[in-house]
Write a structure and sequence with these properties.
This is RrF2 family transcriptional regulator. It comes from Massilia aerilata. This protein is mainly alpha-helical. The chain has a single domain, classed as Winged helix-like DNA-binding domain superfamily/Winged helix DNA-binding domain (Arc Repressor Mutant, subunit A, Orthogonal Bundle), CATH 1.10.10. It is built from 8 helices and 2 strands; from the N terminus they run αααββααααα. It has helices at residues 5-18, 29-36, 40-52, 77-85, 107-122, 127-130, 133-148, 156-160, and strands spanning 56-59, 65-68. It has a two-stranded antiparallel sheet. β1 (56-59) and β2 form a beta hairpin. α1 packs across α3 (40-52). It starts with a helix and ends with a helix.
Length: 161
């Protein structure tokens, strides 16, 4: 299983916003785009979905920007991935194929069980946990570097993984 780029970007946005703290200026889409080298058009779609889900507030205009609304202590990575990846239990599309095993396939149930186990494991981790320790410190450095005018550190996204 591999997460979609959409979910990857969504997690990075939430992590970045969680460590924005009490900044006087809200985080902008352009800031996140430059920090993570994400094309603006992809980022705008993800931000729109995160706002629609009520996890962030996106304000337009000259003084606009992004702020985290969700409680990082209760928002689980499992919740985020279910919403961004889609809540389907299926890793393969058995119905959309002409597979001779479709009626009696054991693999389909195994894959469902694996997917459920993955989400249950991700439900054990919160956004606050994902931004603790070295990851949180790196994000804070990214915020400071951005405001000091320094370019984003090469390899910064890798440190967040």
């Amino acid at each position: 299983m591999r997460l979609t780029r959409f979910s990857d970007i969504g997690l990075r946005v939430l992590i970045y916003l969680e460590r924005a703290g009490e900044r006087s200026q809200p985080v902008t889409v352009a800031e996140i785009s430059s920090q993570f080298d994400i094309p603006l058009n992809h980022l705008v779609k993800v931000v729109g979905q995160l706002a629609k889900l009520g996890w962030i507030k996106a304000t337009r205009g000259r003084n606009g920007g992004l702020r985290l609304l969700a409680d990082p202590a209760t928002l689980t990575i499992g919740q985020v991935l279910r919403k961004l990846e889609g809540e389907e239990d299926e890793l393969v599309d058995c119905e959309g194929t002409n597979c001779a095993l479709k009626l009696d396939c054991q693999l389909r149930g195994m894959l469902r069980a694996g997917m459920r186990a993955f989400y249950e494991a991700m439900d054990g981790y919160t956004l606050a946990q994902a931004t603790s320790g070295a990851t949180g410190e790196q994000v804070i450095r990214m915020h400071k570097m951005f405001w000091s005018g320094m370019p984003a550190a090469s390899g910064a996204p890798a440190a967040i993984e």
